[in-house]
Amino acid sequence: MATRTSSLVVEAAGVRRSFGDTVVLDGVDVSIDRGEVVALLGASGSGKSTLLRILAGLDEEAGGSVSVPASRAVVFQEHRLLPWKRVADNVALGVRTGDAAQRTADALAEVGLADRGGAWPAELSGGQSQRVAIARALIRRPDLLLLDEPFGALDALNRLKMQALFGRLRAAHGFAALLVTHDVDEAILLADRLLVLDGGRIAETIEVDLDHPRAVDAPGFGALRRRLLTLLRVPASPDEEQNEE
Ligand SMILES: Nc1ncnc2c1ncn2[C@@H]1O[C@H](COP(=O)(O)OP(=O)(O)OP(=O)(O)O)[C@@H](O)[C@H]1O
Hints:
The protein is of the alpha/beta class. The chain has helices at 48-55, 87-92, 100-110, 126-138, 156-173, 184-190, 221-231, 238-243, and strands spanning 8-19, 22-33, 37-42, 63-67, 72-75, 144-148, 176-180, 193-198, 201-207. It comes from Actinomadura rugatobispora.
């Protein structure tokens, strides 16, 4: 018999988590294939960050079974760089191999910051800081990236640039990723599959069957956006209703 599970990097089943009497996750099943990007959506407070922290190994109180690769890295909405270390030292953190300097230079070049290794975090813009956080994650060549609203604090233009960067990095590295986002367009642009968390469970799974590179005005995008907004109970704007097919 074929071993179907061999290509899965994440296998979580029956994940449960409560805080006091409040049940936040009530039996969540998530599988992510090697190289697959999955977006996790849901209303505020639905438990997205809670689930991400469990998959990251940052929450030991959860019930259920969780299998994730040791080779994983997390990117949060805030960059969490150490202010007393220069950019290059932040990126190289935890890398003990002899080629750490070269890997740091490569990782910074990949995120477009080849010349900022000597800077202090305080000297960077928000977008640059988040690029460094991504370089710090990538330098470990993770099989799995866990991203919690990674572009959520950025302005619209920076957000678009980071989404394009994510697409390039994904093509170059082939990592699997779980992307927590509030941004419906971002989810459809970047993910192979969308999960909607509601009532403590994965209420909906949607395969995104659109060609790459994706654009918000591509055929099929608007229909998918409307479906997601309905699931998230967000009213579509009057403009959108008029302009979409
Ligand atoms: N450490 C904690 N102690 C108590 N309650 C918590 C804790 N962490 C999360 N919660 C609660 O669990 C629920 C889910 O929180 P979580 O941050 O996972 O939601 P979320 O879907 O990521 O929300 P948002 O989209 O607003 O970031 C919330 O009601 C929150 O108050």
